[in-house]
Each structure stands twice: as C-alpha cells, then as structure tokens.
Amino acid sequence: MKNRVAIIALLSIMALFMGVALVQKNQKGHAGESAQEHAKHSESEQKDVHAEEAGVHLELTDSMILKAGITIGTVGTTSIAETASAYGEIRYSPEAISSITPTYPSTVVRVNVKQGDAVRVGTVVAVLMNRETLTEYSIISPRSGTVLERSVNGGESVSDGDVLMTVADLGAVRAELAVSERVIGDIKIGTSVSVITNDESVPMRGKVTYISPEMDTQTRKVTVRATLTGMNKRVRPGSFIAGTIELNRGSSALAVPSESIVMIDNEPIVFVPDADEKGAFKPMGVKTGRSSSTYTEILSGLQANDSFVKTGAFALKAEMVTANMDPHAGHGH
C-alpha cells in the first residue's frame, strides 16, 4: 500500500515538472520574438480574419470607373428568345459576281489586270480584236470589285460567250446555313442571326433574307441565307461558320445583358456594387440558363431589382486577374 502511494506521488510530481517545462518553453519562444514582429504577426492575423469576413472586392476611383465605362443596371425580366444552332459557309452573293465575256469572236490583244487586282466600274480590263472586222475594242468592268479569276492571255482566240475573267465585290457576301427541319417553322425573313468563323472571335450579325422552299432529303436540313453586317475583310468565301439563329418563340425570364457576364475559372460571374463602400465592386457567382443574342437568363445568384455592373465587366475582370484575386472568396457556390 505504501509503495502504491509513493508511485502515485512520484507520477504527480513528474507531471507537474513537465507542465512547467512546457509553459517555460512556450514563453521562451514568444520572448525571442521582437515586439515589432509580434505586432506584425497580430496585425496579419487580424487582416486575414477581416478579409475572410469581407470577401473579395475591387476599389476604383471615379476616374477609373469612367475610363472603364462602368455603368450600373437593375436586374429585371425580359423576353428570352430561344435559339437554334446551325453550320454552313460564307459565300458570295450571286448578284455580287460578274463574268466578263467578249462581244464577238476575237483575238486577245492584251489583258490589263491580273488575278487579285482591284478594279472600278468602267475600268478597261482587256483589249480585243474582232476577227471579222479586224477592229479593236475595249472590254470594261461592269462593277467595282476584285478580279477573282482570269482565264486568258494576249494572243489567244476567244468566242463570244467565253469567260475572260470574273470580278466580284468581296464585301457582298452572305452566310449560308443548313437548318434542321425541327426549327425551320420558327424562322422568318428578318430573323436575327449571328455567325462566327474559326479564325474570328467577334461574331458577325445579320438578318435572314432567304429560306429555301426545299429540304435536303438526305440531311433533313433547309438552306437559310442571311446578309451580314460588320464583315471583316479577312473573312473569305468558303470559310466554315457556326451560326446562332433566334427563333420566333420565347418567354419572360430574369435576365441580364450577356456582356455583363464574364467567365472566370470557367464559371459565370457578374460584378455587383458593394453597398458598404463607394466605388467598390465584388464578383458574384451566378447560374445561367437560356441565352439570346443580347440577354442571358439568371437562374440563381441574383434576384429581381438587384444592382449589377451592366457595362464594364471585362475591365473589372482584367483588374481581378491582374491582382490575382480569387473570385470565389466571400461567396459560395
């Protein structure tokens, strides 16, 4: 019994000494830290806590906001037209191409242009000699455009009806799309269309001008043509295109302009003004639904009458990326 009491007492004393040693070691560690380092450490901890509570936000001056073109809008409902995807090619409009032929059976005296040359309407593109009268006459371009093909050289004999060259207006091109029979009934003359090529990042927009009355029995597709605006001269006929056609049907939905939504880390983000700080904006993750050429449906993340950055979202995204900020801090998904 006495031995047990002695052992218990010994263990208690050892535990006491170990506790004291740990306390002293901890105090020594803090004692080795300067007052300045300790203050900095405490301040850093406070900042971390504050940042976690406040979330990510960008602060801009009035001049920066003006320069970035930032405007504020209010979330509301709008009609979202359903869209259909279609694929096709950029092609010349038939009325933009002219085939130049001789007036009589002739001999080519000289050709004044080569393939790729730009010509104006009335330009003398060749001189021929009538083989019956042996008189020379000029061939003029019937339109302004570019020489696409040249088929003859000086000294060659040609007959009336032979094509000497082809001139086309490169700006007069159109989109030709193959549209599924499933949606063709919802497309009308004047329906809005946007197309994009593999080489261009900015879509070209236009209106439907022609809907074929026939359907391809093999593909079950109908040819739809659209004139385009904002054509880039680098877009050449024959270029493959992906098109989006607005259908004449849709319904109202909570939505924001599509340009207000930016993708960060492959997730849609809308910027909203910080109600607690003037000139501050924070990213808000949203879930999107249907899209038209101008608006995108918001399924979650924003509510009706919420304020949001209507224009200038790309400038805010650039600021965030430059600052290496995490857009997911301060809000959940």
Task: Evaluate the radius of gyration.
Answer: 37 Å
Q: What percent of residues are in strands?
A: 35-45%
Provide the succession of SSEs. Answer: HHEHEEEEEEEEEEEEEEEEEEEEEH
Largest sheet: 6 strands, antiparallel, barrel
Mean pLDDT: 81
Task: List how many beta strands DSSP finds.
Answer: 22
The residue ranges in which pLDDT falls below 50 over 5 or more consecutive positions are 1-54
Assign the CATH topology of the largest domain.
conserved putative lor/sdh protein from methanococcus maripaludis s2 fold
Number of domains: 4
Question: Quick summary of this structure?
Answer:
The chain is α+β, with helices and mostly antiparallel strands. The chain has helices spanning 2-31, 35-54, 62-68, 313-322, and strands spanning 58-59, 71-74, 76-92, 97-100, 106-111, 118-119, 124-130, 136-140, 145-150, 157-158, 165-168, 173-180, 192-197, 204-211, 221-229, 240-257, 262-264, 267-273, 280-285, 287-291, 295-300, 307-311.
